[in-house]
Write a structure and sequence with these properties.
6-stranded mixed beta sheet; alpha/beta; 23 helices; Serine Threonine Protein Phosphatase 5, Tetratricopeptide repeat; 3 domains; 8-stranded mixed beta sheet; 624 residues; 50% helix; Alpha-Beta Plaits; Rossmann fold
């Protein structure tokens, strides 16, 4: 790719535009390097991570770029944008680095290793002062996101120029629907090691394609799975059941979005989208696929179209046994609509995690306590917390303390322990509210130091600020951080619904509560969702509706102390005084020291008049 001289902006931003009005547009091979899990690594050890990254730059990355003629034009802490005049040089450089960098990680624990993904595209770059523009920049960045950690992903344009000129193998991924890229991109991953023959990979014999190659190939597992952690789940590519290959980009986009949202939940370990893309259009030996990917659970399904209508089916399978433990389907219009795709993905994700959790709980019940892994203790602690009974509540604390001692770097344990102290205050079980409040904050901060995107810690911190401290701006900011991490988190929507009620915005509170219900119609803890809607409708003065949601929230065996108050106040406000008094009597039997004056003084409503009105309704219900 011969060309004239073009002057890129330097890393310090002092670059000049190129000569002449048209010289700023040139064709380059563009490589986007992105560090996997940068925020998590910084949270674990910020100084150590920066020191090791600098050493990699100094000893490996920068020398390799110089050898292969690469020009580093932008950095962003965890990413590098490099341009090459030769496509072959770009791929050679990426291969060299992806083979050499792992050798520098051998003395590091798996969770602290520095790993890169690389996306490579050919495209025009336009230099405008210190700014770079061009479609190729965006495509390279999106391609790296389709890589398995430690991998290299190429566009077809790059692949076709290097396929017969380099001693590496390639796996075709097919057309990918990449975010903010208008057209599907035909993509390939570089196989840095020789592919594993099917018979050696744990996969049974499969039908072969025209050239005698297996229809199913599985990337080698990049790392051993650490014992004792959350189970691994792999989302296999959707099968195109009607043979319509023109819409492959839709099915691939759905799978990529499911993986992305599962990762955001932090509840499961998720196999990367790029690691499963080569499993296509077959009915594979699920046990073999699970063994090769290191996954205990597999999600698979298919999509077919009939005119403007489409149907998607999905099932969750235990890889070891092949048992399907959940199946679901949905019919929808216009699969090209991102809004429809987002709703489908959200409904699938919010059904998957609880099914895995329930299956894991069935597996470990009756297991000797001394044989429980840290993850299994976390599961049991969650179950005990959800029961809202004092004996189980104390058992949860013992389990969480054990996990923190055994694995002090496990962020979810600190987040759950923070929830424990917050719930202790909410249930009026605390002997020292100030101390429990401080522990709620300390443990959540520790969880976020270990994992800056920990969903439970973000949501718990936000709810604490709103519920205990009336610091609504800080609460809403943290809720937004949680929803940025997991846009369809039922817990974030439900808890933030309360805050919108507290600040006097009941319409938004109702919208969030209803959205949470829509996303999780068979939620394991429905009383929490019902309670949020009771509060929202009470705040909106829809007292009859609030009373019905309050009744539903109290209909099971689990009771939040605050829910009983909201239900009684709603019934009293609706004129259903006898029912309100019945709820109040049952509540006082469990919490005899409850006083309306204390409730009003601590109430999280921002508007004092709302607090006073709530107190009047509690008195009308019969609370002292």
């Amino acid at each position: 790719m011969a060309r004239g001289v073009i002057n890129f902006p330097s890393e310090t931003g002092d670059g000049l535009s190129s000569r002449g009005a048209t010289a700023g547009r040139e064709l380059f091979a563009i490589a986007h390097f992105d560090m996997v899990g940068y925020s998590r690594l910084i949270g674990l050890d910020d100084i150590g991570t920066v020191v090791r990254l600098r050493a990699l730059r100094r000893d490996f990355i920068d020398p390799a770029l110089r050898r292969h003629g690469g020009r580093l034009v932008q950095t962003a802490g965890d990413s590098l944008l490099v341009v090459f005049e030769s496509v072959v040089s770009a791929v050679q450089c990426a291969v060299e680095l992806q083979r050499s960098i792992p050798t520098q990680n051998e003395n590091q624990p798996v969770e602290r290793r520095i790993i890169f993904r690389v996306g490579i595209e050919i495209g025009d770059i336009i230099v405008d002062g210190t700014e770079l523009h061009g479609d190729g920049l965006n495509v390279a960045a999106r391609l790296q996101g389709a890589c398995p950690p430690g991998g290299i992903c190429l566009s077809r344009a790059v692949h076709d120029q290097v396929a017969n000129r380099l001693d590496v193998a390639f796996e075709e991924l097919g057309p990918l629907a990449l975010k903010n890229i208008a057209r599907p991109i035909d993509a390939f991953v570089v196989r840095l090691n020789p592919p594993v023959p099917a018979k050696q990979s744990g996969i049974a014999d499969h039908p072969t394609g025209p050239a005698g190659t297996p229809d199913v190939t599985v990337p080698p597992r990049p790392y051993p799975r650490p014992a004792g952690g959350p189970p691994w789940i792999a989302v296999l590519p959707l099968r195109q059941l009607d043979g319509d290959t023109t819409r492959n980009h839709i099915r691939d986009g759905l799978v990529a979005d499911i993986v992305c949202q599962l990762v955001g939940l932090r509840e499961l370990s998720v196999i990367s989208h790029g690691s499963t893309l080569t499993i296509r259009d077959t009915d594979p030996d699920l046990r073999g696929i699970g063994q090769r990917l290191g996954a205990q659970y597999l999600v698979r399904g298919g999509i077919r179209h009939a005119g403007t209508r489409s149907r998607l089916t999905a099932e969750l399978t235990v890889a070891e046994t092949g048992e399907a433990i959940w199946a679901w389907h949905i019919d929808f219009d216009d699969p090209r609509s991102f809004e429809i795709q987002d709703r489908i993905v959200a409904q699938i994700v919010n059904r998957l995690a609880p099914r895995v959790r329930d299956n894991e709980l069935r597996r470990i019940r009756g297991k000797r306590p001394d044989l429980l892994s840290t993850y299994e203790k976390i599961l049991l602690a969650r179950e005990n917390l959800a029961l809202l009974e004092r004996d189980h509540f104390q058992a949860a604390k013992v389990l969480l303390d054990d996990v923190i001692i055994q694995e002090p770097g496990y962020a979810e344990a600190y987040a759950l322990a923070s929830d424990w102290h917050l719930l202790r205050i909410g249930q009026d079980w605390s002997d020292d509210r100030i101390d429990d409040d401080a522990e709620t904050d300390r443990l959540a901060r520790r969880a976020l130091a270990l994992d800056g995107d920990n969903l439970r810690a973000l949501i718990g911190s936000a709810h604490r600020r709103s519920y205990l401290h009336r610091d609504y701006p800080a609460a809403l900011s943290m809720f937004q951080r949680a929803l940025n991490t997991a846009p369809n988190s039922v817990l974030a929507l439900q808890r933030s619904s309360y805050t919108y009620s507290f600040i006097g915005e009941p319409n938004e509170a109702i919208r969030r509560g209803e959205r949470a219900m829509e996303l999780s119609p068979d939620d394991n803890e429905p009383h929490m969702l019902y309670s949020a809607l009771c509060v929202a409708h009470y705040t909106a003065a829809n007292f009859d509706t609030a009373a019905e949601w309050g009744r539903k929230a109290l209909g099971g065996t689990r009771m939040l102390r605050s829910t009983a108050g909201w239900a009684a106040a709603s019934l009293a406000a609706a004129g259903r005084v006898d029912e309100a008094r019945e709820v109040a009597a049952n509540t006082m039997a469990r919490w005899p020291e409850r006083r309306v004056s204390d409730v009003v003084a601590r109430h999280p409503y921002q508007d004092v008049s709302r607090r006073l009105r709530y107190g009047e309704h509690l008195v009308a219900a019969g609370f002292p």
